Every structure is written in structure tokens, then in C-alpha cells.
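Before relying on records like the one below, remember that each one covers exactly one chain. Contacts with other chains, cofactors or solvent are not represented anywhere in the record.
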Amino acid sequence: MAADPAVVLDVTRLISRLGQGPLTGIDRVEAAWLAHLQDRPHLLLARIRRRQRLLPPAAGAALLDWTGGAALPPAGALDRLLGRTGARAQAETALARMALASRGPAGRGLGRAVRRALAAGRAGPDPRADLAPRAAQAPPPRAQPVYLSVGHANLSAALWANLGWARRVVLIHDTIPLDHPAFTRQGQSRAFRDRFAAGVGQADLVLAISTAARDDIARWRARLGLADRAALAVAPIGTSLAAPDPGALPPDLDLSRPFFVALGTIEPRKNHALLLDAWDLLARHCPPEAMPRLFIVGRRGWRNEATFARLDALPRGGPVRELSGLPDGAVAALLDRAHALLMPSRAEGFGLPLTEAGARGVPVLASPLPAAREILGDAARWLAPDDAQDWALAVAEMSAGQPQRLSPLAVPTWNDHFARAWQAIGAVSPRA
């Protein structure tokens, strides 16, 4: 009987996020897969300094430690000379030294390097002992490797054309850069289109995180004239509920009044401007001492200068406060005491804050997007993303009483996600 297939997980995105603050949604998915594979046969691939580096499992264990806050190896003399002293640069240097193989950007010859690593036992099963001598008894043959990309990174047509040694699987989180170019960084819509075409057009399996996202992927696959031989499978991503840690909150944060939380990167599609408009409307009718609080939790993103200017102009000690870089325990502590999570997004492929709030029984006010309704159904109050008055009225109504709690919603776990993904991967025929 063949052993479980070895997975070659692309971790390019996770490396690029080191030193950039708390992980965002897509980052968390890549980190979850990396953690999941720690007790399974696997290797890693990453584009590091214009080279494709094949990495042993021990590199993944180190990467998880670094994303969790462990100290990175100090920068070497050459790195300091070249000005490469940030967290990402330090990690790239350390990982490049661990590489089992290094190839050009197109990854020619990676298949041979992967086969050699598998034959030498470099894929595990114990990832922290990947350099141990081979057992005298030959291991059972493995099924064809699986190349897995879940981070929207390292998706180049040239690389994917050279991945024929594996069953190629790509997870696409959403098609927002194609549907809403104005919500992305300058030039990213075109870049995403190229990555989408490379991955979806050449994959043997395409995973989606919601039925709504799957339908969007199918629509754009047809619109771009890409091959449709790959199956489209839905594997909703998991929700991890951090333990509340009130001690991690800023000590000067006033939680004595009713407050609401908006969670996510401050970017145009998240529509924070509507919430600022709603609080302006509230201020016209509420005395200062009765104003509910709004805590905007997330780092600043892109193409949102008008909103950033409004945030910068907020009075110190006022009812609206921007909070960046909070650890998961602090966010959990806020949600546990909030009157509601507010999510007036104009586009979402999933919406992890929705499942986190739903699983805690925290009321949700949100835009009625297809993915959001798929996740929460009737367990949310749906408001139009362009009607600040409705949002202000809903907030005023909820602020009048004590925080209410709903029955916790059953949301997908990471085990659910992995089970559905493995089922779909197992149905993919090996490549000839």
C-alpha cells in the first residue's frame, strides 16, 4: 500500500509577512496548513531572493516559531552590509542556508530535487528529525507528491508549467482584485489576474473557501478562457478562538461605556468610512457622555487616504479609537465584552471576523454579502453598506441596553477544513 502523499507547501507569503505585525486572514490560512503538516510527510517551497528554494520540514518548524514571536537568527555581516536587517531578510538568509535545493525563478529541475529529498527521507514523518539516517528497511512507495499553494503568492505561469511532477492544488480565497480593482493596491489587479490565470489555469484542483467564492472563481475562469479541467471544491476555512486576555489591552482603553468593534485591515472594501459617518450622525443626537465607543482594530492598508485623514483627525479621548497590532487575546477580550461586531464590507470571500463573533455568540451587524450570508444565515442583522443612518440607528438601539449574547454558532473548524481539502485532493488522479 502506498504511503500518504508528501505535500510540498508553498510558504512564500508567510515569509514575506514576518515583521509586519499580526497575521491577516490569508496569512493565517498558510500558517494553519504549515502547522497541520508538521506530523505529515512534507517539504516546503519558497521564492527567496529570486530563487525557488526547496526547504526541509525543519524550516517550517522554525517559520512557525518566528511567526509566533521567537527570535530570528541575527543578521550576518553580508546582510548588514547590504542593509538586509529586517525580520524578513533575516529569515530569508536563515532559510536559504537550510535549503535542500535552489533553482531559478521558473523552478526547472525542482521535480528531481523533490524526488531525491523524498528518497532520502527528508520529508519526515518526523519533521524535526528530517536529517536522521534512513532506516535499513525501505519505506513504502508514496503516491505522487502534492504541490499546494494557499497564499496567493509565487503563482507564476513559468513556475506552474514546471510543476508537472506533482498534483497541483491551489486555494483561491476570493476574486476581489478582479471584481473590484479600486479596492486593491495600484497595479495589483493586473498582477492578481496573472497569478489567477497561472494557478487556476494549470491546477489539477482548485479549492475555494466558500460557495460564493467558488462561483466567482468559476465565473472568472470562464471569462478569462482558462482550462476548466480542474475540479472546484469548497473547503471553508477554520476559526480558532483565542482565549480572552484583558491584560493585553491598552491600559488607557475606556470600556465603561457601550462599545462596538470593527475588525480587519483598514482598506477601502472594509468600508470604515461608513462607520465614521454613522458615528458623526450619532454625535449630533447623543451628548458626549452618552456616546457609544467604536474601536477600529487593524493595521492600515492601501488607497484609503481620506479615511486615514479622518482617523488622524479624531480627538484624543473621543468615542472612536483606532487600535493596531493587538494580539489575538486582546481582540478576543474586546469581542467578549462588545455590544456587537460591525462589518459593513463591500466585498468578502469569507470573513473570519464573522465566524469568530458568531462562535462567541456576539451579535453582528454586517453587509448582506453572499459569503457573509452563507456563513451566518439569520444569525446577523443585515444592513446596506451605503446607509450610514441605518447603521447609526442600529448602534443607538443596541447601546441602550446591556450587551446581548446569542447562542454560539457552529462554525467550521480547521479539522473540518483539512478533512474537506484532503477528500478533494484524494479524488485528483495522479498526473501522467
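Confidence is low (pLDDT under 50) at residues 126-136.
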